[in-house]
Design brief:
The chain has six helices and two strands. It is mainly alpha-helical.
């Protein structure tokens, strides 16, 4: 085995390690996004907490309204009650203002969301390194087979999502469905579609086929 071949094989192994590592970090991000949805105020738990808080506020307002006032009138006694202060709790989907993510403005949900985004950024960087080393191992663009196409596609999709977040676009709520899709895609790539790093057959070394199979 010549030196170039050994180096390419080493890069391919590094690429595989990076792809598996990115999957591990994506999994952590997945659970963080779930926590954001679970503890955020748009979730069932969050709406229940908001409703309970509103109920407590109503009771407190009623207590602050003070006792009834008795007024003696000629020929009888009238009891005057102060009007209750009604605190209306929004119901349905209008109970939570629109926010940058699934947290709906709650502090705990926002914390989990920020952790999820940080993990997504780390996983993206690791996966991008895996795609780059895969390309260097074969000295061509990294979409010569379905395995390479899948890992490149998920890298680009995650990169677009992070870019939109950097541009302050309200797409944070897409984190959970996106990372779920990325994990499923990468799982399919490494278990079913995996192809060992290798050069394309000479028949595919064509300028016209470069975009499709590099």
């Amino acid at each position: 085995m010549n030196l170039a071949a050994a180096t390419n094989e080493n890069l391919a192994n590094v690429s595989n390690t990076l792809i598996y590592s990115s999957m591990a970090v994506y999994t952590l991000a997945f659970f963080a996004y779930i926590a954001e949805w679970l503890f955020g105020s748009r979730s069932k738990v969050g709406r229940t907490a908001a409703a309970l808080t509103a109920t407590d506020g109503t009771k407190a307002a009623k207590a602050k309204s003070g006792p009834a006032v008795t007024v003696n009138k000629a020929g009888g006694t009238a009891v005057l009650e102060r009007p209750e202060v009604v605190v209306r709790a929004a119901s349905g989907s209008r109970d939570v203002p629109d926010g940058p993510g699934a947290h709906g403005g709650t502090e705990q949900g926002d914390l989990y969301g920020r952790i999820a985004i940080s993990l997504t950024l780390l996983a993206f960087a690791i996966e991008a390194g895996g795609v780059l080393t895969r390309a260097l191992s074969v000295q061509r663009a990294p979409w010569g087979n379905m395995y390479e196409f899948n890992i490149t596609f998920t890298t680009v999709a995650t990169g677009v999502y992070l870019a939109l977040l950097a541009l302050k676009k309200n797409v944070r709520w897409l984190g959970l469905p996106l990372i779920t899709t990325v994990l499923l895609d990468l799982g399919l790539a490494v278990t079913v579609l995996y192809t060992a790093s290798d050069q394309l057959v000479p028949a595919l070394h064509s300028y016209w086929l470069y975009i499709h199979v590099s």
